[in-house]
Amino acid sequence: MIIEINKDIEKYQESVAMGLTAKQLVYSILALGSGCLIVFLLYEKIGLTFSCYVAVPVVAPIALCGFYSYNGMGFREVFTRYMRSIFRNKALVFKASGYREMIAEIRAKEEAEKRAAARKVKEERKRMQKEKIKSRINSCLKRNNK
């Protein structure tokens, strides 16, 4: 006796008819019925092709309600959340407070760093000049001592 068990138990669906769950079966019947009703009502007025074109936008959301699932949510919940995110969300606006003061402070810090770097360069040059002078004096003293 062999009993087949899905490897992923969370995705197990009990089928009612033709491999469809009860929810899928109900929405399939609703979609098929509404599509047929629209086609039969509009067939004589606009023709078969255009009546099918009119029926598809009505039938598709009904069918999606039964079959579509995203992160455990049905189509209706996903669609309502999507519409809410489009129309109800407020735009995020940056309001600067103290922007000019902050820029002035940053510029002051940069200028202070530049002055400190220039001062350091001057000190280094003075130190190098002093070393050159000392080395010249030492070389002159060594020549005189010989």
Spell out the key features of this protein:
146 residues, two-stranded antiparallel sheet, 72% helix, mainly alpha, 2 domains, 2 strands
SSE order, one letter for each helix or strand: HHEEHH
The gyration radius over C-alpha positions equals 41 Å
Beta content comes to under 5%
Number of strands: 2
Tally of discrete structural domains: 2
Chain-averaged pLDDT: 84
Fraction of residues in helix:
over 70%
Q: Report the structural category.
A: mainly alpha
**How does the overall form come out from the CA principal axes?**
elongated
> Order of strands side by side in the largest beta sheet?
1-2
Largest sheet: 2 strands, antiparallel
Distance between the termini: 114 Å
DSSP helical segment count: 4
Low-confidence stretches: none
Structural notes for this entry:
- 72% of the residues lie in helices and 3% in strands.
- It is mainly α and 146 residues long.
- It folds into two domains: 15-87, no CATH class; 97-146.
- A two-stranded antiparallel ribbon has the order 1-2.
- Helix 1 runs antiparallel to helix 2.
- The longest helix is centred in the C-terminal third of the chain and has 47 residues, at 99-145.
- 4% of the residues are buried.
Ordered list of secondary-structure elements with their pairings:
Layout (H helix, E strand, L loop, with lengths): L21 H25 L1 H20 L1 E2 L2 E2 H13 L11 H47 L1
Antiparallel strand pairs: 1-2
Helix pairs in contact: 1-2
